[in-house]
Amino acid sequence: MEYQEAKDKFISTWGSLGSLWGINKAMAQIQALLFISTKPLSMEDIMEELKISRGNTSMNLRQLMDWGIVTKEIIPGERKEYFTTEKDVQELARIVAKERSRREIKPVIKILKDVSSIKDDGTEKTKELIKQTKALHELTDTMDTMINKVVNQQQKWLTKSLLKLFK
Amino acid sequence: MEYQEAKDKFISTWGSLGSLWGINKAMAQIQALLFISTKPLSMEDIMEELKISRGNTSMNLRQLMDWGIVTKEIIPGERKEYFTTEKDVQELARIVAKERSRREIKPVIKILKDVSSIKDDGTEKTKELIKQTKALHELTDTMDTMINKVVNQQQKWLTKSLLKLFK
DNA sequence: ATTAACTTTCAATATTTTTTGAAAGTTTAA
DNA sequence: TTAAACTTTCAAAAAATATTGAAAGTTAAT
C-alpha cells in the first residue's frame, strides 16, 4: 500500500468512526488529517485535501476547537490561520471521554436519578420503573466514573496494570 | 413526578441516548419500554405506547433480536408474539459492549493495523502516518481488549452464580 | 383447503442532519 | 481609510436516515 492510499484509507475510516465518539464525519476527517500532518494546515489546505466547502471547514474547525482537540496556530508573517490537533493519543482519549461525559452522560445520569426517585405508590409498574431505572442509574454512574478515572489518572500505568491483571 | 411522566421521560431520554450505544431512536425506545414493563408486550402494545407504525416496530424488534437484547416470548394459547428484553443491566452492558466491538471496533483496528504497516519510504510524512496510526492502533486495541476481558470476567462470574443456583 | 390473525417487506414519504456558497463580517497592511 | 485577504454566518439545497402503510407473506385453527 502506497502512502496516498494509506492516508485516504485512514482519513475515511476515522471519519466514519466519528459516530463512535459522538462527532460528525467532516469533523472527524479534519481531525484525522491534522493528526497525521507534519505541519499546521490552513483552511485552504483542509478544504482542498478533503474536498469540502469553506463554510463546512470553518464550522467544523470551530467545533473541534470547542472540544479542545484542535488549536489555532499563528504563524508569524502569515495572514492565514493555521490549525493543529493534539498529537498524543492518550491526551486525545482523555479529552474525548471528558467531553462526552459532560455533554451526554452526566445529563442522562441526572434524569435517571430523578426518574428513579419518584414516589413509590405501591403499584407493581411503579416498583418496576423505580427498580430498573435505579439499576441503570447505578451502572451508568459507575461506568462514567470508571472511564474518567482510567483516562484521567496516570493513564499509562493504569492501562498497563489492568491489562496484566486480565491477561 | 407521576408515574406516567417519569415513564415518558425515561423512554425519551433513553431513546435519544441510543446514539451513544450505536442504535437508532425507535430501537432504543422499544428497548426502554420493554425494560420497565412488568410483562411481555405484543407488537400492538408497543405500537400504541410509542405511537409508531407496525413496520417500524417490526423492523426495530428484529434488530433488537439480532443484537441479542430482545427475545420473542411465546405465550401458550396466544396467537400474537410477545417480546421481552434482558432485564439485568450488567448482562445488557456485556451484550452491547461485545456487539459494538464486533461490528465497529474490530474492523477499524484491522484497518489501523494495515495502514500503520505500510513500508517506510523514509519521507517525513510517511514516518508521521506510521507513527500516529500505530499509536491509535495500540490505544484502540488496548481499549477493546480491556472491554472484552471485563466482559469475560463478568461472564465467569455469571456462570458461577448460575452454577450455585443449580447445586 | 380456506380463512382469519398476525408479521414482514419495501417503495414511497417524511424527517433530520450535513453541506454548500455567497453575502456579511473582521483584520491587517499600506 | 481603503482595500485586499481572510473567516464566519446562515438560508437554501443535498444527502442521509428513519418512518409509514399497504400488499405480500406466514401461521394456525377450523
List its traits.
homodimer, 167 residues, mainly alpha, Arc Repressor Mutant, subunit A, 2 domains, three-stranded antiparallel beta sheet, 7 helices, 3 strands, 6% strand, DNA-binding
Characterize the structure shown.
2 copies of one chain form a homodimer. Chain A is mainly alpha-helical and 167 residues long. Chain A has 2 domains: 3-85, Orthogonal Bundle (Arc Repressor Mutant, subunit A); 89-166. The first copy, chain A, is built from 7 helices and 3 strands, in the order ααβααββααα. Chain A has helices at 3-16, 25-35, 43-50, 54-67, 89-116, 124-152, 155-166; strands at 41-42, 70-73, 82-85. In chain A, a hairpin with an 8-residue loop joins strand 2 (70-73) and strand 3 (82-85). At the A-B interface, helix 1, helix 5, helix 6 and helix 7 of A face helix 1, helix 5 and helix 6 of B.
SSE layout and pairings?
The structure is a homodimer of 167-residue chains.
Chain A lengths: L2 H14 L8 H11 L5 E2 H8 L3 H14 L2 E4 L8 E4 L3 H28 L7 H29 L2 H12 L1
Antiparallel strand pairs in A: 1-3, 2-3
Chain A binds a DNA duplex (30 and 30 nucleotides) through helix 4.
Produce a short descriptive summary.
Two copies of one chain form a homodimer. By secondary structure, chain A is mainly α.
In helices, the fraction of residues of chain A equals: 55-70%
Taking pLDDT < 50 over at least 5 consecutive residues as the criterion, the unreliable ranges of chain A are: none
Tertiary shape of chain A:
elongated
CATH topology of the largest domain in chain A: Arc Repressor Mutant, subunit A
- CATH class category of the largest domain in chain A: Mainly Alpha
Q: Oligomerization state of this entry?
A: homodimer
Radius of gyration computed on alpha carbons of chain A: 21 Å
Hey, roughly how much beta strand do the residues of chain A contain?
A: 5-15%
Please, how many helices of chain A? 7
Architecture of the largest domain in chain A, according to CATH? Orthogonal Bundle
Structural class call of chain A reads mainly alpha
- Count of extended strands of chain A: 3
- CATH homologous superfamily annotation of the largest domain in chain A: Winged helix-like DNA-binding domain superfamily/Winged helix DNA-binding domain
Terminal Cα span of chain A: 33 Å
